[in-house]
Amino acid sequence: MSIDNPSDSDLQDFGQALGGEFRDRDIAALAALTPEQRAVQAKLRRELWFHINSVWEGQERTGVHPVDAGGFGAVAGLRDLLDALCVHVEDAQYAAGDAEGGWLVRVTAEAVE
Fold it and tell me: Can you tell me the distance from the alpha carbon of 29 to that of 34, in angstroms, rounded to the nearest whole number?
């Protein structure tokens, strides 16, 4: 992969590799959190995945698949990375014995000066 001019395939491969290489460290860090904090991580990671996926699906709605359109390698890589991050938190929740659906999380944002 050329870092200066990566192909779409390179970008997707990089996203997948990052997710795999980060797995053990991510799960260890998630294990140190409370069930409530893991639930927040799950919510935020899923929300970001849905945002990135909406970019992918927006292209699909044009009738031209993102792979065929070209230039969507970064989107594919981010989707794959975020999918891995979502799986990591689900694995950490399962390993910790967190009750499935045990925490309903509402995340709010406010302006900070």
Answer: 11
Q: Average pLDDT in the 72-76 region?
A: 96
DSSP 8-state assignment for residue 99 = P
Q: Which residue has the tokens 């890589």?
A: 77
59, 74 contact by CB (below 8 A):
no
**Amino acid identity, residue 90?**
E
What are the φ/ψ torsions at residue 52 (nearest 5 degrees)? -65, -40
Report the candidate in 76, 28, 35, 96 with the shortest Cα–Cα distance to residue 43.
Answer: 35
Query: What is residue 1's predicted lDDT score, i.e. its pLDDT?
Result: 56
Of 26, 8, 83, nearest to 52 (Cα)? 83
**What is the spatial distance between Cα 106 and Cα 57, in angstroms, rounded to a whole number?**
25
Name the residue among 46, 66, 48, 67 with its Cα closest to residue 56. 66
